[in-house]
Amino acid sequence: MTKRLDHHRFATLRRYLVAGLLIWVPLGVTLLVVAFLINLMDRTLLLIPPPYRPERLFGIDIPGLGAVLLFILVLGTGMLVANLFGRRLVAFWESVLNRIPLVRSVYSGAKQVAETMLSEGGESFKKVYLIEYPRRGIWSLCFQTAS
After folding, report:
1. DSSP notation for 14-34
2. Predicted confidence (pLDDT) per residue in 2-36, tens digit
């Protein structure tokens, strides 16, 4: 009987441990990824000339300021390209990029993925598949975007 009781206690303890790990591991990974991304965005502030960097101007380091400035940059870019002048500017820029062989491939692929993921039409991807492509033994992810 004590073996059964010990086994039950061990199983309960294991169940609690797994339940705790299922909460803490994703949370920990998420926090690490967010901290890494914020740190990465804050490093973009190093592109600003030293006399104009926020820590020099304000006297303190402000964590996350790079993320705020990146948000403002993306928002401002969106405001610029949303009008006729901006669309013409983007069309010109894309025509320049489409003339450069390697850049053309990378840019057009990234643009397609971004347009699909950020489309306002609702569901962008229906399913994800793993297919053997471009040759035998090489596997690629693909996304079903229509029925």
Report:
1. HHHHHHHHHHHHHHHHHHHHH
2. 677 777 888 899 999 999 999 999 899 999 998 99
36-63 in b/e burial notation, b at 16+ Cβ within 10 A? eebeebbeebeeeeeeeebeeeeeeeee
In this structure, are residues 130 and 140 in contact, taking their beta carbons and an 8 Å threshold? Answer: yes
The reply to whether the predicted model has a pTM over 0.85 is no
Q: Give dist(CA 65, CA 79) in Å, integer.
A: 21
Question: What distance in Å separates the CA atoms of residue 62 and residue 91, rounded to the nearest whole number?
Answer: 37
pLDDT at position 112 is 83
- The percent of the chain in helix, strand and coil, each rounded to the nearest 5, is 70, 10, 20
